[in-house]
Amino acid sequence: MLRIYVHSLPVRIWHWINATACVMMVLTGIQIRYVGLVNVVSFRTAVTVHNWIAFILIANFFVWFLFYLFSDKIRIYHPELNPMKHFHRTVRQIIYYGYGVFKGDPNPHHLSLYRQFNPLQSMVYQIVMLLLLPIQGFTGILLWDLSRFAGVVNYFGGVRVVDTVHVLVFIVFAFYIPFHAYLGTLGRTPIEKFKAMFDGYEEVEEGQSADGAE
Amino acid sequence: MGRSPFAIGAIGAAAAAVVLALAGMTMSAFAAAPSAGDTQCLACHGSPGMEKQLAGGETLSLHIESDGFAQSVHSVIGCTGCHANIDPASHPPAESPITTKREFSVAMVQICRTCHNDQFAQWQQSVHAALVSEGNPVAPLCTSCHSPHAVIKGAAEEMDTVPCKTCHGDIFTAYATSVHGVARSSGQTGAPLCFGCHGAHNVSVPSAGQGLKDVCLGCHTDARASHRDWLPNTELHFDVVSCPVCHAPQAHRRVDLVLYDSTTQKEVSEPVGVPEFESATGSSTATRTGLDPKTLWTLLSTLNRSGVEGKTSLKGRLDVSTGVEAHELAAKSAAISDCDTCHRAGAAAFQSVTVSVAGPAGIPISYGASKEVLSSAFSVPSVGGFYAIGGTRITFLDILFVLALLGGIGIPIGHLALRVAFKIYLNRKSHEQGKG
Q: Do A178 and B409 touch (CB under 8 A)?
């Protein structure tokens, strides 16, 4: 068994800030949207916390973005340019999660320093980080000060349109976050992936990964 | 050789100035002792019960209270100041030129205008004048507010004598018990009486558009800053929530969706080319439900059909239900400042909805709409400009959220259960195979 250092410190710090902030955003979002049904904190407190965490999340997004943009780690997000190969790997991964994992089959994706993500992870993470989070940040900023951004809000059809987009993305996150956490338990042991996101090291079978192995 | 209009005007103005100067100097003397001409008039018209039948069937009182007239600001100009057309030699005429009291009052407006042209010009801009133009038989004319033979200066500035309450009695009663009315009664002249918000002659409807905000902030100049201290999105709240919504806490509230042209930023006066508007709403009152979400969306689509200039949209505004309630303003400490009052499902503020178009003189004409127009998926394209977090959320999105949450938690639980079940099954199988 080899230990490879795949999650560098900035990535780990970013990840846990991002995870905590996203969870808090969903929770405060639920409180804001469902006052009366949920009464953990007041509407005003929920809005204030939601706004502050949003700015932390936006700043954190740029930490992630700039880190990958200006480091060779961006290779982990490089897409597979051969569509047949990508399709084949994706189907294989879906079959693993949908059936193979129950039988105890090995994960078809072999982790390495620059191939950290299986095809599904790669696709989902790019959708989340390059599409959903920016949309959520953008619509959130518009909703934060509707008068200041009235021109932009009206351009998109009004506050309700902007809010509906914001809520739709919120719904996706409400689905994705628990799902993401669960998928983290599908390592060799339930805590292996979580541990790796703290110390940065992943263990791989010998012969399956060469780069970056200790 | 004829004089030029300018020369005639100048001579007239000079003469008027002299008359007014003399009138001012001798006002008290006239008030105390009527002129010989006025005495002659009052010899008959001072008799109580003097009246005559008009051709239209009404009875016109011809009695003038002598003392009241003597104290009136008009006593200085005397009877002929306004009734110059009366020839004492042939008075009373054999045939009355007055058909109805209303007709006479309308005609006499032009006499008032002779001296009070500025006020007349202001009145022409008023909601009252617009109603008169529409033929409203009770819309106020000069003499409706200013008893012509007993005009007392400053009467409109006193709680007891303000003429507005003659027609707007229920509103005045609400005002009298409001924070403004109580302050005014206690002698605080800075507290507004009717004209303070509505204007004296250019009487307007402040509730239309941004008028009310402008009126309130006209005196409460620090309100914007003080709200900014605690109210998120202050400007937005100021734009879409009328002041009485929070400052008249006992009032019923409604959402008014105003049809306006987003190109010209002006309210639409009538839904031109959409005959189904009337039938769709069915009522011009706010209490009945009319437009349902899909009909409203269809209506807007029809208004914005291809080939029509401009773009008709709906601008939402949270207001109190009635004009009476708009005057029930409470002290600042009693105002609603709890966000949860509106930002929650089922909030009272969003149970009544109207769709309005601009009527004459800015008085909105409102049509009933169902409250679902604020929570249906159709509200995204039709009521895009109005949304209150929590209060007017779209039901369909709530369903999606519940499904997403169930899926996000339920699928992992199901997957985990299957993993455990498979593990037990495989272990048992391997155990049995080991035994075999």
A: yes
**Partner residue facing A102 (CB), from B381, B383, B418:** B418
pLDDT tens by residue, A56-68: 999 999 999 999 8
Mind listing the pLDDT tens digit for each residue in B210-250? 667 778 888 999 999 999 998 988 988 998 899 999 999 99
Cα–Cα distance between B81 and B416 in angstroms, integer? 99
Give dist(CA A129, CA A67) in Å, integer: 13
Total-model pTM: 0.79
In SS3 terms, B153-188 reads as CCHHHCCCCCHHHHCCHHHHHHHHCCHHHHHHHCCC
Tell me, what amino acid is at A187? Answer: G
Tokens (6 digits) for B238? 């100021």
- Paired tokens of B173: 């009663």
Rounded to a whole number of angstroms, the distance between the first and last alpha carbons of chain B is 140
Q: Do B386 and A154 touch (CB under 8 A)?
A: no
Contact yes or no for B320/B351 (Cβ under 8 A): no
What residues of A are in contact with residue B423 (Cβ under 8 Å)? 104
Compare all CA atoms of chain B with the CA of A27 and give the residue at the minimum distance.
B405
DSSP of A119-140: HHHHHHHHHIIIIIHHHHHHHH
Neighbours of A173 (CB within 10 A): 21
Distance CA B410, CA B376 (A): 28
Distance (Å) from the C-alpha of residue A46 to the closest C-alpha of chain B? 11
Report the alpha-carbon distance of residue B238 to residue A183 in Å, rounded: 47
Which tokens is B373 given?
């127009």
What's phi and psi for B135, nearest 5 deg?
A: 90, 15
Task: Give the H/E segment covering residue B52.
Answer: strand B51-53
